[in-house]
Give the backbone structure.
Amino acid sequence: MFTLRPVWGKDFLDREQLLHEMVATLASPGERMGFALVGKRRMGKTSVFLETVRRLRVRKSVVPVYFSLWELVESTPAEFARELVRHCLEAFQESGALPLKVKARNLLTAPLELLRDLLREVRVSVRLREELEVLLILSRERREEPGDLIARAFRLPEDLAKEAGVRCALFLDEFPSVLELRHNGKALGEGVVRRLRTEYERMEALILSISGSIRSTMEAVALGPGSAFWRQFIVREVGPLPAAAVRELFRRNLGKPLSERAFAALWEFTRGIPFYVQFIGRELARRGGRIGAREVADAVEEFLNEEGSVLFQEEWAKLSPKERKLVLALAQGTSSPSRIARTIGETPNAVSRYLQYLEDKEVVERIRPGVWAISDPVFARWLSRKAEALAREV
């Protein structure tokens, strides 16, 4: 049925051309290029990664490892290393390439004496056992320089793959978050990305794929000419679902197709963005009964009045006072920098500067020269509806 979580398997829909390319490339021994998925939040990049992982698991020559950096709570190098190690060990354990008698998460918390006993039973080389022991201890005790600890963890899937005689496809979801890892109160920044790139140059069995929701940070780590991973990935954009896929999703989950009027109302609101499609679908399925344009409109109203406030309030709070004035002007139909300047009492140069900041954050986009709009149409609709109350906050 409809879900707000990433989907894979029988629940996955569309993107077949991209999936075929990714699976074929990542499973091919002669290929050295991974993928960089770019797309705004809620477009389904994680679902693409998870479905690729699922399809790769049936191939005995590849061990796929998925790790989202948004899982991190502390955002420290030690936590990054610990979680990457756990995901790698679990993936190799599940594939049968690394026999372990206990779960990987138990290794991370086992007392030192027990840890050594457990590792002695693993059928890998003495060198890898010793490296794994050191890495497990350091990821708990935080006694190593952050760059060295991260590099050790990053090398682990390469070493495991070589030991097992397989290829490892590592998926790091929201990879630019690595820039925000903090040590002694300071972000590691681009230095950690350069360190990972240096390690990756020497690897033979590991193929890295990454994703990112904000293009400016993806430019900083991989897409820009001056970035550490420049030209190391096949770059693919993940955008909205096509209308045919949305129609099929509703036919499959509701047992019948939507009427033309109901679908037009659904499409006008969601524009094919998977998260909103799934949310409205869930609301309609929960209500049951007849589903027409009126029922779609009611579900949209409920979303904007309840879920929208929870979902978008955080995004609103992240904006500066001047940025808030600017997005409110856009939400109310003012689209040119000169008109925005008059509306909010700023100079055109200042407005152009703030538009650039907001474009870097993927909050706004330039439709054509001199015409701007809010990137997320649902966010724009929520802002328009709440404009009077929000204006009082600025």
Observations:
- Residues 318-391 form a domain with the Arc Repressor Mutant, subunit A fold (CATH 1.10.10.10).
